[in-house]
Each structure stands twice: as structure tokens, then as C-alpha cells.
Design goal:
single chain; mainly alpha; 3 helices; about 0% strand
């Protein structure tokens, strides 16, 4: 009905008074206002809720993204703190390990040095024993050679072989004189 009234008003002659004097047709203006109102109602009923829903969804996504960004920033800060703590603990542990390694190396060096000193002392003692044994053997051999020389010299001087008892007596005297003349080892 409204549309019919608007259509009849549009078919009547325009008047040139009032709004018509400005070059506006009142019936066309009313028609356009009614069309605009209908379009506005249709948009309000169908499009506006969809647009509002889309905008609200977008707002929620943006808010969620901002919240996630804040959480990530906090997590990043916490991870940086944890990383610093782990690095500090690792440094402390590494220093402790290095100190222990130095201590163990010193202990091992001391033990090796003591072992080497002990081995050197054993070698020295063994060398003294061998020297004393060799010296005793050399003296014994020298004694025997001296006895042989005394016997040979005595035989040459006397040109006669003496009996064993006299031989033994002469040997003993020669040995005692030889022992007095040979220096003793310390």
C-alpha cells in the first residue's frame, strides 16, 4: 500500500514550490527514503548479525593472538632465565671437574714420583750389594792368585817342594801379610 501511494505521488505533476524550488522532487525523495529504510531493515536483519559476528570473531582472534604473544614473551623470558641458570650450573660443575682433575693429576704425579724414588733406592741398594759381592769375589780371586804367586815364588826360591804342612804355614803367613797390604772396602 505504501508503495502504491508512492507510485501515485510520483506520477502527479511536480510542483515548483518548497523543496521543488530546490530541484528536488518530494515524492522521489520519499521513495528513496523508504527504499533506504527497507534496505536498512534487510541489512539489519540479515547482514548486520553476520558482519558483527565476523568482526567479533576477528576481535577474539586478535585478542587470542595478543594473549599468545604475551605468553610466548613470558615463556621466552623464563627460558632465558633457565638457560642462564643451567649455564651457570654447568660452569660451576666444569670448574669443579677441572679442580678435581688437577688434584688427581697432582696426586698421581706425587705417587709416581714416590714410586720412582723408591725404585731408584732399590736400584741403588741392589747396586751396592752387587758392588760388595763383586768386591768380595775380586778379593777372593786376588787372594787365590796371591797364594798361587807366593807358592810359585817360594818354589822358585827354594827350588824344592815342601811338605803340605810347611806349605800351609807359608801360605798362611803370606796371606796375612797380603791382607795387611790390601786396603779394605767400606
Amino acid at each position: 500500500m505504501i508503495l502504491v501511494a508512492i507510485a501515485q505521488a510520483a506520477t502527479t505533476e511536480p510542483t515548483t514550490t518548497g523543496i521543488g524550488a530546490l530541484g528536488l522532487d518530494l515524492s522521489a525523495f520519499i521513495f528513496q527514503v523508504v527504499n533506504f529504510a527497507i534496505l536498512l531493515v534487510i541489512l539489519r536483519i540479515f547482514a548486520y548479525p553476520l558482519i558483527v559476528k565476523i568482526l567479533e570473531d576477528r576481535r577474539q582472534k586478535i585478542a587470542a593472538s595478543l594473549k599468545t604473544a604475551e605468553e610466548l614473551a613470558k615463556a621466552k623470558t623464563e627460558m632465558a632465565k633457565k638457560e642462564q641458570a643451567v649455564l651457570a650450573a654447568a660452569r660451576t660443575q666444569a670448574e669443579h671437574i677441572i679442580i678435581q682433575a688437577h688434584r688427581q693429576a697432582e696426586e698421581q704425579a706425587t705417587a709416581i714420583e714416590a714410586k720412582a724414588q723408591e725404585h731408584a733406592e732399590q736400584i741403588k741398594e741392589q747396586a751396592h750389594i752387587e758392588i760388595n759381592q763383586n768386591l768380595a769375589a775380586a778379593r777372593k780371586q786376588l787372594k787365590q792368585e796371591a797364594v798361587q804367586l807366593v807358592i810359585a815364588a817360594t818354589e822358585q826360591i827354594i827350588k824344592v817342594k815342601l811338605d803340605p804342612a810347611q806349605d800351609e804355614q807359608l801360605i798362611s803367613e803370606a796371606l796375612s801379610q797380603a791382607e795387611k797390604s790390601i786396603p779394605k772396602a767400606k
